[in-house]
Amino acid sequence: MKKICYVGLIGRPNVGKSTLLNNILNFDLSIVTNLAQTTRDNIKGIYNDVDSQIIFIDTPGIHKAEFLLSEKLNEKSYQTIKDVDVVLFLTPANEKLGTGDKYIINKIKELTNNKLLGIITKIDLIKEKELLDEKASQLKELGLETILGTGQGYQQTYYDLIDEIKKHAYEDELIYDEDQLSDVSLRFIAKEIIRETAINNLYQEIPHSIAISIEEFKENEGKNLPYHIEATIFVKNESQKGIVIGKNGNKIKTISMNARKRMTEIFEHRVNLFLKVKVDDNWVNNEQKIKRAGY
């Protein structure tokens, strides 16, 4: 028996949800880039210590839906709010509390009566403590009783957050094995690594209208053979396809090389990765194609 708690990470895009989860787990589970709307899946990260198991759910950033895909991503976040025991509302210290933040807080209150904690992220990016105090006061005015700050180089803040969450945990049987960091498969991690690498290499040239499909994944367990992975990068038009491939194929080679290196580090196993690029116009507005992409 341990103290169990399900925790949802909720907020606008690019407020530090994935970074928070990765720091708590001390493992790069979720995609982290400088771009908004990077997370597309509800990703479970499992924290274990001597007396507790806390299941964190990293969600897509809630935003104004411009495509059917955007609506689907928002729905995932709303469902998480309903399902978890504790909701962490994240907002960055270096940005003003805006109408989007207030909308999300009101939406959380509409969907659940469970505990709501305010988390001010990226506190390492501000020097004036008064700005932090001002933001905490604004959150309290909106009904958030408990406010915590987190940031790079402030490791104690993550311990404080865990202690606060434990106050709302309950005794139960373990949900996951104690050495398990997530419920996602290696196949899923491979897909996310490819997408993250593509975004990081293309981010000034192409929007988030790419999707990754893993066509083949062979682990070759027990053999001294590399994992064999074949994947397709889907884009919206021929122009985007040309950008992803690059001059003389240099861009896709870079994406493949960097993704393969990252997979090798995480899987602790050699990887052979084969990528191709296909055009699939307007997939972000097509229900069937969105499902095929795993969303």
Automatic annotation (TrEMBL):
Pfam families (UniProt xref): KH_2, MMR_HSR1
Domain of life the protein comes from: Bacteria
Sequence ranges assigned to domain KH type-2 in this UniProt record: 202-281
Residues noted as binding GTP in the record, renumbered to the chain: 11-18, 58-62, 121-124
Annotated region described as G5, given as residue ranges: 149-151
Any one GO BP annotation for this protein: ribosomal small subunit assembly
GO cellular component, one term: cytosol
Main location: cytoplasm
Span of the signal peptide: none
Stored Gene3D superfamilies: 3.30.300.20, P-loop containing nucleotide triphosphate hydrolases
Entry protein name: GTPase Era
Gene source species: Metamycoplasma alkalescens
